[in-house]
Design brief:
Elements: H1 9-19, H2 35-42, H3 50-53, H4 62-78, H5 84-92, H6 103-108, H7 114-118, H8 126-132, H9 138-151, H10 153-163, H11 169-184, H12 195-204, H13 210-223, H14 225-231, H15 237-247, H16 254-260, H17 267-280, H18 283-293, H19 299-312, H20 314-324, H21 330-342, H22 348-358, H23 363-372, H24 378-382, H25 390-403, H26 408-415, H27 421-433, H28 440-447, H29 453-465, H30 470-483, H31 487-503, H32 515-531, H33 536-545
Helix pairs in contact: 8-9, 9-10, 9-11, 10-11, 11-13, 14-15, 18-19, 19-20, 19-21, 20-21, 22-23, 23-25, 25-26, 25-27, 27-29, 28-29, 29-31, 30-31, 30-32, 31-33, 32-33
InterPro entries: ARM-like, ARM-type_fold
Protein name: HEAT repeat
Amino acid sequence: MNDEKSANPEEILKLLYHTSSPSYFRLLPKKALQPSLLKAIEEIDDLNILFHFIPLLFVKNQQVSEIARQKISELLECFPLSRLSGLDEKIRKLYYSNYFKVAEKYWFDLSPHLLDELSCDSMKNLAAIKILCCHPNGFIRSNAIKSLVNLSLIDALPFLILRANDWVDEIRKFCSATLFNLIDNNKASLLIENLPLIKQLKNKGRYDQIKLIQKIESALITDCQAVLFETLESRETIVSRYAFSILENSKKLIEKLLSETINNKDIIIKFSAFNLAKNELNSEQFFVYLVKLCNDKFMPIRKKVLYEMIELYPKQAIGFLEKGLLDRSYSIRSLCRFYLKQRGIHAFTSYYINALNNQEITATLLVGLSESGNKTDFELIRSFMGTKNPSLQAAIIVAAFKMKPDDWENIIKNLLENPSPLILKTFVNCMTVFPESYSLTELIELVYRRKVPLYVHYFLKIISCLSYDRWIVLNFILDELILIEGDETKLLFEKYLVQWINHNSPNKNFVHLSVEESVITSDKLSKIIAMNPTHLIYQNLKANIKNFLSP
């Protein structure tokens, strides 16, 4: 390796293995570990590289061994606890191929007395002892976990929880007994940081872990209640959801738990809380809870509220159904209209018209009117054509597509002259619902702007969703690739071509091009390939369409 500064991790590892390799490799030339190489090693932050450093912990070359110890210590500090179980399994099944085959000697052939040597300077060798807790040899795992407990109980806890599921009875019983003892000595608070591992242990479902899990959860509710409530907001969903499942087992905490999760960001926790409220609260309390959730940010929660209102509180439900006519979700607006019709209420257009006169104008109000009104009712929406509010402009586009006033095409054209991303996105959504509204030629004239990547992006989204003639689309794109200059626009077209190729399987029965069309298409593609000789996408396209061209 000539330039250690630019070395990739694999090259660095090869050099380290070469430096510490057994005697029959010593005839090969070796380099001393240069400062530039040490700096490159220091910059490695890929957690997946950790596995290749493990055997280097146990080589005789002290410099290499020390480098491995430092790097593994650093990577273990960054390793998420939720992934530690996967790390354990992968370490126990380590397999080295190619150059790293020599690593097996350093890992699988460890001396049973190695831990005695490591214990002489135990704090320095902490990372090595942790790794040995995951060794495939049960004797080594057993001694390692016992050494780690004696060395540092806090550092040992994640590995105690892991090994509590070990298939070796002696190891499993030792770890379980140690954890039981920890709880009996009122130290359950030490376990709170290891919730991901406790949850994973619970999921294993081994029969002799049930009592351990029950005792841990009971102790956490007693000793760590405040921390569990804080954990409900954790970004790690495995942690927040498990904290909820622990807290819901305490009847005394249910009201507080429901209050704390009313605005939780995790929809799974929201659903769990909803079901808990339904099962545990009385009728009056549950109604109050539903009222708090009627404007929830999650549409499925708002829908569940309506269903429960309809079933349990039919008299009060009408007011909530009428309010739902202005919900931002089409699904909920449709649901509300359906159930209101069952109660003999059909004047939805009048409802929206009254709201236009008496409420603040919102996008959902205009869209709701378009869903229930007719062509003539669009005149009520037309008065908002001059608005600069993007959400209202987007709602007007939806209304124009749905209600089809006589000048609907001009309305949409005017709104697309200088659109925001929201308006373009809304136009794309409407085109998927009303695909016959525009021909490809009309669509190109309406929304395609060669020099504006935003327009190109949404134009390609439309033609990706609709069934325009594939060959006409391809020829248009080839024409544009010859003309465009911007790299961003070119990249958008190339991404679309990947989709086009994947869809244009030779196994599918597409119409073949005529001889004249084949020549034109081939000439365009050849010109693009000449302009971009290193771009494989165009070579792949040429190979793909070969079977569809006439000779």
